[in-house]
């Protein structure tokens, strides 16, 4: 998702609600959340379960001051360049002028999606988790022996580092070096890595802060720089272009 555009889309929706004026806190808050969700849905196109929530106390009344506090955004089945994922973001210190003080997001890619993009060396193994590690389960190439490889996942400036930690084989968990010392298994370590996985060119002001294997998939955490979120030199009226005409910009995800 284009982060800066997401901020502008959401806060311009809140500004529209304020302009409508009046009402109790709950009513203003509900309308603000609904408008923000509608704008984000438009920008994400075919995404499911798009929700927007103001989480600060009396957030509805705060919209009258131009400061609305924290805005939580979430969406499932967001599509970008052939990959489907879920997004969960929080923008803090949001103002109706299209800025925020800080923000972060978690992008969760399901294991079925990861399976489609495994490198050739481990293609055919099934990704998943044991609650702590990113696991790859399947037969060792050339031997037919079923194993589960337990990998650690960490973030680096260019993307992710996935490194094998240990292996479950024949009901036992052993270090990878123990398994690869057996006859015919010496090439297994080369197939598994460790390896770096690039995430492509991230928008300026967005950095990767973490990665974790969860029940729902591989969750990648991102932080937004204050400069990115405080920049308001773009015309906020642009955020409604296309959406008011019913045109969804799914390519901006």
TrEMBL record:
Signal peptide: 1-26
Ranges for region Disordered: 227-253
Biased composition (Low complexity): 227-241
Recorded superkingdom: Bacteria
Keywords of the record: Signal
KW Methyltransferase (keyword) present: no
Name the record gives this protein: DUF2993 domain-containing protein
Lineage: Bacteria, Bacillati, Actinomycetota, Actinomycetes, Kitasatosporales
């Amino acid at each position: 998702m284009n982060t800066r555009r997401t901020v502008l889309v959401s806060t311009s929706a809140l500004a529209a609600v304020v302009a409508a004026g009046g009402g109790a806190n709950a009513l203003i808050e509900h309308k603000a959340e609904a408008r923000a969700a509608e704008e984000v849905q438009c920008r994400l196109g075919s995404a499911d379960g798009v929700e927007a929530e103001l989480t600060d106390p009396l957030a509805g009344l705060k919209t009258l001051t131009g400061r609305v506090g924290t805005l939580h955004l979430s969406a499932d089945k967001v599509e970008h360049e052939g990959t489907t994922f879920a997004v969960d973001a929080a923008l803090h210190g949001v103002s109706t002028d299209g800025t925020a003080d800080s923000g972060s997001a978690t992008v969760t890619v399901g294991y079925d999606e990861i399976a489609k993009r495994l490198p050739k060396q481990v293609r055919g193994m099934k990704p998943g988790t044991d609650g702590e590690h990113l696991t790859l389960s399947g037969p060792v190439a050339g031997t037919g022996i079923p194993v589960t490889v337990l990998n650690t996942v960490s973030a680096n400036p260019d993307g992710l580092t996935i490194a094998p930690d240990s292996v479950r084989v024949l009901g036992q968990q052993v270090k990878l070096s123990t398994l690869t010392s057996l006859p015919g298994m010496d090439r297994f370590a080369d197939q598994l890595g460790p390896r770096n996985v690039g995430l492509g060119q991230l928008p300026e002001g967005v950095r990767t802060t973490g990665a974790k294997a969860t029940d729902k998939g591989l969750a990648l955490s991102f932080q937004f720089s204050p400069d990115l979120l405080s920049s308001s030199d773009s015309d906020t009226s642009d955020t409604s272009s296309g959406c008011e005409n019913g045109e969804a910009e799914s390519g901006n995800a």
